[in-house]
Amino acid sequence: ERDPILQGKAYTLMGAVLMGQEKLESAAFYFEKAYQAYRTQTKEKACWVNSANNMAILSRRQGDNETAIRYYDEAIEVAQAEGEQQALGDALHNAAIIYAQLKQLDKSREYLEAARKIRLTLNDYKGLTNTCGFLVNVYAKLKQPALAVERLEESLEYAQLTNNLKLLIKSLHEAAQFYQ
């Protein structure tokens, strides 16, 4: 019998390659196969969470925010239950992006702050740079300039720790696009 984890990894890799080539329908086929392999055939909850995240990212890129949120909610629920903190932080951050696109800024802020707290406990400075950079724009849009400045300073600090100011600039630029 085939190893479902190995199968899932192969499907995920193929989906990622196809998504990178903008072949979203083909990527969806492989991501769905990986998702089903992890969800129904293994006890590897981290793989399941990552697979649900991939399905959500793909759904978002296809413009289906409702489906993306459903997958992120599943990833968040399983990651919380299993104590998969890195995956939980990623799912919260990515779901927050969709909530920002939907102009649900309070929900976006809530998810981003939850992701920030998780990333602080993990010393995930790259993730913190990105999450805090996104929070700058959310707080600015919520007309909370003091918090926007606080998160900007925090994001700059983490960007310096990782020697990655490009990530901060990219994060700020991407977040700002939601508010134009």
Helix and strand run: HHHHHHHHH
Taking pLDDT < 50 over at least 5 consecutive residues as the criterion, the unreliable ranges are none
Describe the sheet with the most strands.
Answer: none
- Rg: 17 Å
Number of strand elements: 0
Query: What percentage of amino acids are in beta strands?
Result: under 5%
Briefly note the structural class of the backbone.
mainly alpha
Figure out the total of helices: 9
Distance between the termini: 53 Å
Choose one word for the global shape.
globular
Look at the structure and give the mean pLDDT.
88
Percent in helix: over 70%
Describe this structure as you would to a colleague.
The protein is mainly alpha-helical and 180 residues long. It has helices at residues 4-20, 24-41, 45-61, 65-82, 85-101, 105-122, 125-141, 145-161, 165-177. Helix 3 (45-61) packs antiparallel against helix 4 (65-82), helix 4 runs antiparallel to helix 5 (85-101) and helix 5 packs parallel to helix 7 (125-141).
